[in-house]
């Protein structure tokens, strides 16, 4: 199993160290893991002049899975759009055709107080958001800012082909099948033709999944329902932009974006795995960051790319054990628990494994 490790920027490198320790432990026990590291994002801009060097792309393409820390930071926000770290992320998603982004929002019972919602609204929360990741207004052409009739106009194109909708639809139905058999497709069909097509295609393919109950929700209502009664959802499927927004909203229901992993998969389950949080430049290099989302991303990698369910569950159990024992990084700390740093959290997970 060749794993391409991309630490990136901000807290990326320090959380990645802890995730790699988990991989090292598994390798020490006999799992055939090979790790290769490369640059992406601002780190790559500084070293090579661009956020996604050809060498990084080649390594990622040759690998069986990619593990990414985080990209971006204020230092690079002044650069031209095509040089910004975020472009590296969008570029690798597109180049590797990682169209299926899986973002779980799970509330760990130990962290119920971290949510800004009442514990009874969120306790037991377990949602999987399936976000389409390589289409939509993020990539549609034409796009730009230009002068028309003496003033500047900005424009983007929201576009989905039916094959794009169909393939993400199948991924979502199959995930729903392994969970509670309920899938909610989110669109804005009352206004946008793109998403009318989205809804039509979802209904068409639902015929192949009679055991999954398909429902539809407009995105504004979905945003409201997520904070009103989030436990009504099992699996949600939506386009790139709505998924970007709703997955941030859902992550905060759990009170701890520092806990949530994600997977971005291609049609062969090759994947890139990354924490759902960003590069947190304000705490970078201080040893304060929560490495658990990255460690849990390793678990997702073992499950989805390598079919190693047992190893995945072992990591997830170790994380739960560490939380149950009261260990907390600053982002999830509350009085009565023990505040520890990034490396200590890594120590604790390794010990629990
Ligand atoms: C995410 C991020 C990215 C996105 C940015 C950094 C380009 O917000 O992964 O959700 O919009 O997809
Ligand atoms: Mg986002």
The largest sheet is: 10 strands, mixed
**Total DSSP E strands:** 14
Q: For the record, give the distance between the C-alpha atoms at the N and C termini, rounded to a whole number.
A: 21 Å
Helix-strand topology string: EHEHHEHEHEEEHEHEHEHEEHHEEH
Overall mean pLDDT score?
Answer: 96
How much β-strand is present in the residues? 15-25%
CATH superfamily of the largest domain: Isopropylmalate Dehydrogenase
- Secondary structure class reads alpha/beta
CATH architecture of the largest domain: 3-Layer(aba) Sandwich
Sequence of strands across the biggest β-sheet: 2-1-3-12-11-4-5-10-8-9
Bound molecules: 3-isopropylmalic acid, magnesium ion
Per DSSP, the total helix count is: 12
Note the overall shape: globular
- Please name the CATH topology of the largest domain: Isopropylmalate Dehydrogenase
User: How many domains would you count in the coordinates?
Assistant: 2
Helix content range: 40-55%
Write down the CATH class of the largest domain.
Alpha Beta
Q: Can you tell me the residue ranges where pLDDT is under 50 for at least 5 consecutive residues? A: none
């Amino acid at each position: 199993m060749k794993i391409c490790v991309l630490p990136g920027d901000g807290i990326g490198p320090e959380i990645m160290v802890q995730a790699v320790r988990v991989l090292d432990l598994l390798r020490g026990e006999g799992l055939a893991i090979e790790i290769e590291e490369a640059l992406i994002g601002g780190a790559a801009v500084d070293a090579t002049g661009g956020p996604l060097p050809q060498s990084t792309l080649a390594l990622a393409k040759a690998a069986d899975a990619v593990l990414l820390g985080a990209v971006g930071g204020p230092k690079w926000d002044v650069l031209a759009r095509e040089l910004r770290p975020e472009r590296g992320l969008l570029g690798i998603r597109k180049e590797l055709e990682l169209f299926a982004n899986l973002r779980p929002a799970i509330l760990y019972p130990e962290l119920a107080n971290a949510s800004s919602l009442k514990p009874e609204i969120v306790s037991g929360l377990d949602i999987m958001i399936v976000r389409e990741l390589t289409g939509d207004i993020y990539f549609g052409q034409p796009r730009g800012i230009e002068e028309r009739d003496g003033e500047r106009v900005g424009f983007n194109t929201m576009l989905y082909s039916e094959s794009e909708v169909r393939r993400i639809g199948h991924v979502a139905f199959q995930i729903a099948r392994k969970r509670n058999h309920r899938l909610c497709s989110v669109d804005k069909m009352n206004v946008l033709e793109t998403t009318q097509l989205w809804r039509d295609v979802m209904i068409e393919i639902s015929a192949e999944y009679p055991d999954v109950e398909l429902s539809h929700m407009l995105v504004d209502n979905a945003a409201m329902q997520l904070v009103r009664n989030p436990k009504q959802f099992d699996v949600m499927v939506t386009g790139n932009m709505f998924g970007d927004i709703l997955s941030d909203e859902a992550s905060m229901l759990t009170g701890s974006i520092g806990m949530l992993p994600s997977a971005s998969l291609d049609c062969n389950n090759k994947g890139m795995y990354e924490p759902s949080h960003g590069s947190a430049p304000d705490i970078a290099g201080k040893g304060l960051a929560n490495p658990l989302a990255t460690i849990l991303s390793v678990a997702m990698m073992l499950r989805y790319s390598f079919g190693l369910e047992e190893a995945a569950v072992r990591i997830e159990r170790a994380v739960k054990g560490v939380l149950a024992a009261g260990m907390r990084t600053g982002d999830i700390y509350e009085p009565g628990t023990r505040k520890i740093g990034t490396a200590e959290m890594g120590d604790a997970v390794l010990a629990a494994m």
